[in-house]
Amino acid sequence: MALWVGYMAAILGTICWIPQAVQVWRARETKALSLPAQALFLATVTLWLIYGVMIGDWPLILANVVAVTMVGAIVLAKLKFG
Q1: Most exposed: 45, 50, 56, 69, by fewest CB within 10 Å?
Q2: What is the CATH number of the domain that holds 44?
Q3: What does pTM read for this prediction?
Q4: pLDDT digits over 1-38, tens only?
């Protein structure tokens, strides 16, 4: 049961970044986004990913692979489009 709770938390906690990443790249507009905040969050999810790999926790790994990808795309867009 706990594993399923972990997977649901992983799914819900990461899919929220998909619309933001898609919107940023479609609109090419990032003025309202804070680069320091996005970069800090990218560092956070990257560390969570590393931690998940270290302990072999698949919900944590999968959630943070998606989060690193989406937040990384947002940071890249912010650097590219300003």
Answers
A1: 56
A2: 1.20.1280.290
A3: 0.84
A4: 888 888 888 888 888 888 988 999 999 989 999 999 99
